[in-house]
Write a structure and sequence with these properties.
The structure is a homodimer.
Chain A: E1 5-6, E2 16-18, H1 42-45, H2 51-58, E3 63-65, H3 68-74, E4 82-84, H4 86-92, E5 97-102, H5 113-125, E6 130-135, H6 139-150, E7 154-160, H7 161-166, H8 168-176, E8 180-184, H9 190-198, H10 206-219, E9 223-225, H11 232-238, H12 240-251, E10 258-262, H13 267-273, H14 277-281, E11 288-294, H15 299-302, E12 304-309, E13 318-323, H16 345-352, E14 357-361, H17 363-377, H18 386-402, E15 407-412, H19 420-427, H20 438-445
Parallel strand pairs in A: 5-15, 6-7, 6-9, 7-8, 10-11, 10-15, 11-14
Antiparallel strand pairs in A: 1-4, 2-3, 4-5, 12-13
Helix pairs in contact in A: 3-5, 4-17, 5-6, 6-8, 11-13, 12-13, 17-18
C-alpha cells in the first residue's frame, strides 16, 4: 500500500469560495415572493438574512473571498483528508480506485459548519446578536450552535420534537456550545402554540420548525434566521470541500471518473461537486456526477421541476426546483437530513441539463453498504452519506464485472456517532424500506402554486 | 493567529516504538506469579499473551520496530494533529501557550487502537484466531473490536453489565466491527455463572470482567487475552503519541514546560510523556510531567507502593504499583476509564523517583474545565482527558497571575460523543463529587499480598 490519506496544510485552505452561477449554461430561474409570487427583492429577504448573504445568493462573481475570521475558524478542522479506500477496494475485490472526502472531522461531525461559520460571521458583522434556526436530526443545529458560540451570538434552535426526544445527545452537544434548544412545536412562537393546542404531544416536522425559526427571526430584535441547505449561498460556502479535493487529487496524481454524494437539500453535494463542473462543461472532462437521494423522499427522480414553497407553512421564498410538494412529509427514515420535499435550485438545474444525474436508494441497502464500509475502513458513516456509499459500492462492483479501473470519489459528509440506534435497528433486522409513496406525492404536488409564465 | 494545527504526513508515522526501560534510573521491580508470588516466567504468561508481547514486556531494547502491517493500519488516522489552543488561551486570558495532542480522530475515538492494532497483529502472527477482552465504559472494547476485524480475528468482549445497559451505543459500535459483546457477569464463563446465580441483576465490575476474559482465553482453543492498559507493552505501543508530538513541537519551534495527562491504567499518559523522559533525565530539560487521577480512585496520590494483584479475582500477574487494593471498587464516576485500583508500574516508578508527579481531581471541576474548553476550541472531550484539561486550565490561570509564558501541553486522548449523558448531568447540576473514600481504601489495602523481601 502506498499513501492512504492525502493531507493538505492550513495554507491550502481555500481563500475564495467558488460560485458556479456565472458558469451555468443558463441562468437560474427567478426566486419568487411567497405572497406575491413575483421575483423577490433584497428588501423582501432582509428581515431574514444579512445583506451580504442576500448578495451572495444572486452574485455572478466566480470567486468570492472568504473573510479571514472565517478561514481562522476553518483551521479548527480544515483542510479535511481525502482517503484512498484501499481496504474497501480489497474487500470488494474491485479494480476500481475508490476515494472518499472525509468531512466528519469537524467538531459538530459533518460538513455543516462550513456554511454555519460563514453565516454566523456575516450576521455578526451586520450587527445581529442572535440567530434562530431549525434542526431535524441535529447536524445543522449542532453546526449553528458551534458557529454562533465562536462569534459570540446567541443561538435558538427549534428541534423537530420527535428528534428532540429520540436524539437527546445531539441536544446535549448543542447545549455544550451554549445554544438554547426547544422541541418544535414550542410555546415560544404563535405558530408553535397553535399546533400545541391542537396536539400537546405533536411530534413536529421540519416544515413547522422552519416556520417557528422564521417567526422568531422576524419578531425578535437583533435576530436573523439561518438555513443549512438549499440556498445558493449555502452551496457556495460548501465549495471548500471540492476545491480541497481537486488539490488532493493532484497530490494523488489521479482524476475522478465519477463523483458521488447524497442529496437532501443539496448543500454537501454542491460543495463537493460544483468546483468540478467547469472541468466537465468547459474542459470537456468525462466526469459522471451522481446525486443519491432516498427512495422515501425522491425529490429529483420523482419530483416535478416547478416553482414551490421551501417550507410547509409557505413563509419562505418560492424557488424552481424538483419538488414532491411542500406539504409532503417523508417517511421516518434514519437519514433525517435527506427528508426534504425539494432540492437546491442549482442541483436541480444541473440535473435538468444532464450535467448531473440522480439515483434513489432504499434505506436497508444503504446500511448494508455503510456496514461493509465500516468493516473495511473503520469509519462509521452517518445514514445520509451511506446513500453515497451504496452507489459507490454498486459502481465498484460493476467494475469488478467489467474489469474497468474507474476512479470513484464519494463525499463522506458526516460520522454516525449519534446515529448508532439506527445501526442497532439494522443489525437487529428491524430496519425497513419505505416504498415510493406515489399517492401522497401526487396529492402534495396538486398543491403547487400557480406561477405566471414569465417567471417559470 | 498563526498556525493552529501542526500536521505531519504519513511518512512521519514513527517506525519504532520507544521503550523507556533501558533509560529508567533503576529497573522495574519483578512481576510475580499470582499463586506462587515469585517472578513470573514467559511460560506462565503464554496461555494469556503471544510470545512477542511477553518479550516486549521485559525488553531492554530502546527502540522496537513497528511491523509494517501495523503502520499500515495506523495510516487510517495517524499522525494525529497537535493543536495550539489559541481560542482557549484568549478565553482564559492567559500568557501561557497551550497545546493539545488530539487522539480522538481514530475511528474508535481514542488513543486505544494504537496498542489494540499491535496486539491483534501479534496474536494473528502467532496463529490465534480469537481474542477475549473486557471493557468498562467501552473505549477499549471498541478499539479491540476495530483491530480484530482488520486482522480477521474473532473478538469477544465482556462488558461491565452496568455500562452495557447505560451505553448501548458503544456496544453498537463494537457490533458494527463484528465483535460479540456480552454483559458481564455472563453465562458464558464459570465465574460469570457463579456471580449470576448470586444475583441475576448483577451490575458487574471491571475486575470481574477481566476474570471472565481470562477464563475465556485459557479455556478456548485459539484464543488469547488482551489488556488495554497497565502493562509495559501497552505503554510501549502508545509511544507513537509522544514521538509524533516531539516532531510537532519542532514544527511549532516551541518546547513544553509541562506535559499533562490523565491516568487510569496509565497507557495514554505513558505514550504521551515517556518519549520526553530522556530529555528530562539525560539532557536536563526542565519539563514538569503531571499525571491527573480522579479523587474517587486516587491510586498514586493515596495508594501504597506495593505489590498487588491487577484484578479482583487474583488471576492475573502481581506487579509493584501504587494501589488502593485489588478489592477496591471506585465510585461510579463518568470517567469509567479511570476507575482502576492500581496503575502502570512504569508510571508508578517514575512517580516514586520524582520524575513524574500526580494530582487528584474531583469530578465536577473536570467537567467545568471540559465545558470551558468545548466553548473555546469546539471539541467535546471524553470525561477521562477532562482531568488533564482541568489541570491545564489551573496552570494557565496561574500564569495569568504570575505573568509567566509557560508552554503547557496536554493529551486530549478521546472524544466525548458517547458520553453526552454525563454532560447532560453536568449541565443539569446533577453531577456530584465523590469524597476520597478513606475507609474503603484502608480496608482494601489490608488485603494486599505478603511478598518476600527479595522481590519487593
Amino acid at each position: 500500500m502506498e499513501q492512504t490519506k492525502f493531507l493538505l496544510g492550513e495554507k491550502d485552505i481555500p481563500t475564495h469560495w467558488y460560485n458556479v452561477q456565472p458558469d451555468l449554461p443558463e441562468p437560474l430561474p427567478p426566486v419568487l415572493h411567497p405572497g406575491r409570487l413575483d421575483p423577490v427583492t433584497p428588501d423582501d429577504l432582509l428581515p431574514l438574512f444579512p445583506m451580504e448573504l442576500i448578495m451572495q445568493e444572486v452574485s455572478q462573481e466566480r470567486w468570492i473571498e472568504i473573510p479571514e475570521p472565517v478561514r481562522e475558524v476553518y483551521k479548527l478542522w480544515r483542510p479535511t483528508p481525502l482517503y484512498r479506500a484501499y481496504r474497501w477496494e480489497k474487500a470488494l475485490d474491485t479494480p476500481a480506485r475508490i476515494y472518499y472526502k472525509w468531512e466528519g472531522v469537524s467538531p459538530p461531525g459533518s460538513h455543516k459548519p462550513n456554511t454555519a461559520v460563514a453565516q454566523a460571521y456575516y450576521n455578526k458583522m451586520e450587527g445581529q446578536t442572535r440567530i434562530s434556526t431549525e434542526t431535524g436530526a441535529g447536524q445543522w443545529g449542532s453546526a449553528m450552535a458551534f458557529a454562533c458560540n465562536l462569534f459570540d451570538l446567541e443561538c435558538k434552535v427549534y428541534m423537530v420534537a420527535i428528534s428532540y426526544r429520540q436524539k437527546p445527545y445531539r441536544k446535549s452537544m448543542m447545549e455544550a456550545w451554549g445554544a438554547t434548544i426547544v422541541p418544535s412545536p414550542s410555546a415560544d412562537t404563535s405558530v408553535g402554540r397553535k399546533y400545541l393546542e391542537e396536539d400537546p404531544e405533536h411530534t413536529g416536522s421540519l416544515g413547522l420548525a422552519i416556520s417557528e425559526g422564521v417567526e422568531d427571526a422576524v419578531t425578535t430584535e437583533g435576530t436573523k434566521y439561518s438555513l443549512g441547505s438549499v440556498l445558493n449561498h449555502v452551496l457556495l460556502h460548501q465549495t471548500v470541500i471540492g476545491q480541497e479535493m481537486k488539490k488532493q487529487f493532484e497530490m494523488a496524481d489521479d482524476y475522478p471518473d465519477m463523483l458521488i454524494g447524497c442529496i437532501g437539500g443539496g448543500s454537501s453535494m454542491g460543495g463537493f461537486s460544483l468546483p468540478w463542473v467547469p472541468d466537465k462543461i468547459k474542459d470537456g472532462k468525462d466526469i459522471q456526477i451522481i446525486c443519491v437521494e432516498p427512495m422515501a423522499s425522491p425529490s429529483v427522480t420523482k419530483g416535478l421541476y416547478r416553482h414551490d414553497f421551501g417550507d410547509a407553512a409557505k413563509t419562505g421564498p418560492v424557488a424552481k426546483m424538483y419538488t414532491l410538494g411542500h406539504s409532503f412529509i417523508p417517511a421516518p427514515i434514519h437519514a433525517g437530513g435527506l427528508r426534504y420535499h425539494g432540492m437546491a435550485p442549482i442541483i436541480c438545474l444541473l440535473n435538468e441539463l444532464g450535467i448531473m444525474e440522480t439515483r434513489a436508494e432504499h434505506q436497508v441497502p444503504t446500511f448494508e453498504a455503510a456496514a461493509s464500509f465500516a468493516l473495511a475502513e473503520g469509519i462509521i458513516s452517518a445514514p445520509e452519506p451511506a446513500h453515497a456509499i451504496k452507489v459507490a459500492m454498486d459502481e465498484a462492483l460493476k467494475c469488478k464485472e467489467t474489469g474497468e479501473e474507474k476512479v470513484i470519489a464519494f463525499n463522506l459528509c458526516g460520522h454516525g456517532h449519534f446515529d448508532m440506534g439506527a445501526y442497532d435497528a439494522y443489525f437487529a433486522g428491524e430496519l425497513v424500506n419505505y416504498e415510493y409513496p406515489e399517492d401522497k406525492i401526487k396529492a402534495a404536488q396538486a398543491e403547487l402554486p400557480e406561477v405566471a409564465p414569465e417567471y417559470q
